[in-house]
Specification:
Length: about 375
């Protein structure tokens, strides 16, 4: 398979996204060729470290970098101030300087926290993303959103801070647990829904090959998702409007994550539930046809994502919505669909329509399908 590169064009903050196989073993030379030098702190977690830390270390040291590993506990529940403080403690104890490069080796949690640490340590140091999950490769490693969770809401504390390089090695997906891969497919499907009906149809047709990690369609998935996100980020880096469309399903999904303590659902699973709710709300408002809604839920179901919504109080959901980052003037805004491939951001949602939606989608247990 031929390796590919996609540029996220942000002027002086532009950076390449590399796709291919064996890239972990050449990332040190890639960084050196881009002019990076000196100390690196590789931030990873207890799951990824045994799999890939030694290979990344050898690659970096072979290119002349000094390597200091920082191994974090695994899981969304650890995406908080305490873990961020652990990163800072390690950097300070090892006398890291402004020339230090942070390398995020892991999934979205590792990438988000490493990016936030890079944005704030010594008022900003360079960082590189080596995403090892599907979700991180197609979404969270690209675009410069960094941050941590707060008990009152997800990703409420953070910064926009772009990496210098994103390296997506498809081989890392071979060691990804099936549940994690399926969760990442929620973000993949999201891109078809918000921006590209042709891509949505491609997913419908090629789902089995994608799930089997067949290189050609898998590479097309990664490249298409990152191209869509790169285009949106280039047009709206700091989410003043267009970029908010990338949050389709996330307002509902983030509420589910925060209200269940960040330890019951993977992010992609919660996003899938959120996309079902946002799609159904679009249908109830007359913006999405019944056939389109069925196509969406059918693809999510075929992927293996959980679509039943956990039983949560309506007022708890509404309270969570009020803390969402898209709130303006005290009113929550939702990303909804005018059709597959056509997303909009709106605050014009009748309260009764939202209450009816929440009532109809609550369930007492985790279910597959709707």
């Amino acid at each position: 398979m031929t390796n590919e590169t996609l540029l996220v064009d942000l002027g002086p903050r532009s950076y390449p996204i590399d796709f291919g196989t064996g890239l972990i073993d050449s990332v040190g030379q890639r960084m050196k060729a881009m002019g990076m030098r000196g100390q690196t702190a590789v931030v990873t977690n207890t799951i990824v470290a045994p799999l890939y830390l030694d290979r990344v270390r050898r690659s970096l040291e072979g290119a002349g970098f000094t390597v200091f590993p920082i191994v974090l506990p695994d899981g969304e529940v650890h995406k908080n101030f305490a873990t961020l403080q652990h990163i800072f403690d390690h950097l300070l104890q090892h006398r890291m300087e402004r020339s230090t490069i942070l390398v995020a080796l892991g999934g979205g949690v590792v990438g988000d926290m490493t990016g936030f640490a890079a944005a704030t340590f010594l008022r900003g140091v360079d960082f590189v993303q080596i995403p090892t999950t599907l979700l991180a490769q197609v979404d969270s490693s690209v675009g410069g959103k960094t941050g941590i969770n707060h008990p009152l809401g997800k990703n409420l504390i953070g910064a926009f801070y772009q990496p210098k390089l994103v390296t997506c090695d498809l081989e890392t997906l071979k060691t990804l647990p099936q549940r994690e891969f399926i969760a990442g497919m929620a973000e993949v499907i999201k891109y078809g829904l918000i921006r590209d009906a042709v891509f949505f149809a491609f997913l419908e047709k090629n789902l089995d090959d994608i799930n089997a990690l067949t290189p050609a369609p898998l590479l097309q998935v990664l490249h298409t998702c990152c191209a869509i996100k790169g285009e949106i980020v280039t047009a709206d880096e700091h989410e003043s409007g267009l970029r908010a469309l990338l949050n389709f399903g996330h307002t509902f999904g983030h509420a589910i994550e925060s209200l269940t303590g960040y330890d019951q659902w993977l992010h992609g699973e919660a996003v899938a539930m959120g996309m079902v709710m946002a799609s159904d709300l679009s249908r109830r408002l007359g913006w999405l046809t019944g056939a389109e809604y069925s196509a969406i839920t059918d693809l999510l179901r075929r992927t293996g994502l959980p679509l039943g919504i956990p039983k949560l109080a309506i007022d708890a959901f509404q309270d969570a919505f009020s803390r969402d980052k898209k709130v303006r003037g005290g009113r929550p805004r939702f990303v909804l669909l005018k059709g597959i491939g056509q997303a909009i951001l709106t605050a014009d949602i009748p309260e009764q329509s939202l209450a009816d939606l929440l009532s109809s989608h609550t369930a007492t247990e985790r279910v597959q399908g709707v």
